[in-house]
UniProtKB/TrEMBL annotation:
One of the Pfam families matching this protein, by short name: RNase_J_b_CASP
Signal peptide extent: none
Assigned protein family: Belongs to the metallo-beta-lactamase superfamily. RNA-metabolizing metallo-beta-lactamase-like family. Bacterial RNase J subfamily.
Gene3D superfamilies in the cross-refs: 3.10.20.580, Metallo-hydrolase/oxidoreductase, Ribonuclease Z/Hydroxyacylglutathione hydrolase-like
Domain Metallo-beta-lactamase stretches: 28-222
Keyword Zinc: yes
Chain's role: An RNase that has 5'-3' exonuclease and possibly endonuclease activity. Involved in maturation of rRNA and in some organisms also mRNA maturation and/or decay.
Protein name: Ribonuclease J
Record key words, sorted: Cytoplasm, Endonuclease, Exonuclease, Hydrolase, Metal-binding, Nuclease, RNA-binding, rRNA processing, Zinc
Biological classification of the source: Bacteria, Bacillati, Actinomycetota, Actinomycetes, Micrococcales
């Protein structure tokens, strides 16, 4: 339910203000703004990837209007981990003020620095580790290790005189993690003992019962598939999933195969991870893609991007026969990732395309080739019982995930009135352990389309959808200025509607009659006559063809 738009009041002294800017009601665009004593602290700044109903859009950014006029007050951006939905929008925010400090772990900062280099921005970065406590303006921040599907993820406890807020970032509680880095429940317990006034907690898997399976269960499955594969193996994953790439490298090495990395982001991120020691590359296993073609088909594994069906990613191009690697019978394709909500159609289209080419496609639906990076309901219950937070704000998830998370909080004893099902732009004030909703900003999507940022509107996307799905009809009519009599036309041209333009012979007399009626009634103004043409053609198309194309009439006075 959309909250009524209401500007929040001026911030009272001794009050901490929390404004989620993105990540509520969606999987992506994660960004939260904290305000205290006139200063702002931002946690995460991510992107959302477009769905099929947003044609032509490259990325979707958080709406920076909450901070745009107060950039000088921003003391830093804390980045919980290196996934795109948490760091992808950093370049666009730093274009507004380049020297905002970026705070995060070594891998997170290395990934964002590589991204910023492409935007020709040299950031000011501050490397932190778990257990570290730093003062950022009036905010005391303690960083806590959490386990996720990327190394070096951190939760952050933000402490002010108004209260203590714990933001988990993305996390799960894998008890046998591949990198031996557990979610630090001892730190959670210590913070809980001292008192957590507001808990911002990952909701992505809140509606999944039980516990998220172990990452290390995936390794033997990948080994078995690679061992039995008769020809080439192509594994698609997120370009930042270091653990999954490690498992593929180890499985390939165990069975005498070489590995070639495909996709610019995959090569960039894994080079960074290897340089920093997060990725252990077996001797001689990696091979440059340009040389991979010389290796026998049963001795090569390709590690690619495109597990979400992204149209320009490697796997989609393979499915469309637009890549150098031509997938065929005997090839094995593994989609080693979960489905991000909204991407289902795109992913199944890729699976169908690869299957049609003869490949054996293995995915989470038919084999255990991926586990989630997010805590399921059982893990969240543990967290609530350990922390005993006074107030809970579920974040990072679609609306159903937020509701499921809030229900878990209530089941563990958090009063219902202290659990907040919020949305992007909701303003919550915290003082003396009491959290209150005080306003709602009117925030929207900011679309990146090529080199333009924020210039494409929802109306533009509606036009694109109409053009793509329903077609385009233009009508040109020349009328006599004094009498309104038709001099030339109507000439009708169409794209994506009908190949034979003789179909419009039926509507031309209707246009002429409608314009004659308008002229008799004294209508002479070209814009008004264009509306007459638009309505006439629109009614005819809808009645005759049940279509709603874009109709562009042009009436010219002679």
């Amino acid at each position: 339910m959309q909250s009524p738009i209401a500007d929040p009041p001026a911030l009272e002294a001794g009050t901490l203000r929390i404004t989620p800017v993105g990540g509520l009601g969606e999987i992506g665009r994660n960004m939260t703004v904290f305000e205290y004593e006139g200063k702002l602290l931002i946690v995460d700044c991510g992107v959302l990837f477009p769905e099929e109903n947003q044609p032509g859009v490259d990325l979707i950014l958080p709406d920076f209007s909450v901070v745009r006029d107060r950039l000088a007050d921003v003391v830093g951006i804390v980045l919980t981990h290196g996934h795109e939905d948490h760091i992808g929008a950093v370049p666009y925010l730093l274009k507004l003020r380049e020297d905002i400090p970026l705070i995060g772990s070594a891998l997170t900062l290395a990934l964002v620095e590589a991204k910023l280099k492409e935007h020709r921005i040299t950031p000011y970065t501050f490397d932190v580790r778990e257990g570290q406590v730093e003062n950022l303006g009036p905010f005391e921040c303690e960083f806590v290790a959490v386990n996720h599907s990327i190394p070096d993820a951190l939760a952050v406890a933000i402490k002010t005189a108004a209260g203590v807020v714990l933001h988990t970032g993305d996390f799960k509680m894998d008890q046998l993690p591949l990198d031996d880095r557990l979610t630090d429940l001892r730190a959670f317990a210590r913070l809980g003992e001292a008192g957590v006034d507001l808990f911002l907690v990952d909701s992505t898997n809140a509606d999944v019962p039980g516990f998220t399976p172990l990452e290390r269960d995936i390794g033997p499955v990948l080994e078995s598939i690679i061992e039995r594969a008769p020809r080439r193996v192509i594994v698609a994953s997120f370009s930042s999933h270091v653990h999954r790439v490690q498992q593929v490298l180890d499985a390939a090495h165990a069975h005498g195969r070489r590995v070639a990395l495909l996709g610019r982001s995959m090569v960039r991120n894994m080079t960074i991870a290897a340089d920093l020691g997060y990725l252990k590359v077996p001797e001689g296993v990696l091979v440059d893609f340009k040389k991979a073609g010389d290796i026998p088909d049963d001795k090569i594994v390709y590690m690619s991007t495109g597990s979400q069906g992204e149209p320009m990613a490697v796997l989609s191009r393979m499915a469309n026969l637009e890549h150098q690697i031509e997938v065929g019978p005997g090839d094995t394709v593994i989609l080693a990732s979960s489905l991000i909500p909204g991407n289902e159609n795109a992913v199944y289209r890729v699976i169908n395309g690869l299957t049609k080419l003869g490949a054996n496609v293995i995915h989470k639906g038919n084999a255990k080739v991926h586990v989630s990076g997010h805590a399921a309901a059982g893990e969240l219950l543990y967290c609530y019982n350990i922390l005993k937070p006074k107030n809970v704000l579920p974040v990072h998830g679609e609306y159903r995930h937020l509701v499921a998370n809030a229900k878990l909080a209530v089941e563990t004893g958090v009063p219902p009135q202290n659990t907040f099902i919020a949305e992007d732009g909701t303003v919550i004030d915290l003082k003396n352990g009491v959290a209150t909703v005080v306003g709602q900003h009117d925030l929207g999507y900011v679309y990146v389309d090529g080199s333009t940022v924020g210039e494409i509107t929802d109306a533009d996307l509606k036009d694109r959808r109409i053009l793509g799905e329903e077609g385009f009809i233009s009508i040109i009519v020349v009328v006599e200025a004094q009498t309104g009599r038709i001099v030339v036309g109507p000439e009708i041209h169409a794209k994506g509607f009908a190949e034979d333009e003789r179909v419009f012979d039926a509507v031309k007399p209707k246009i002429s009659a409608a314009l004659a009626d308008a002229a008799q009634n004294g209508v002479r103004e070209p814009f008004a006559l264009q509306q007459v043409v638009r309505r006439t053609v629109g009614r005819w198309v809808n009645t005759s063809y049940r279509r709603r194309p874009m109709i562009v009439p042009l009436v010219i006075e002679a």
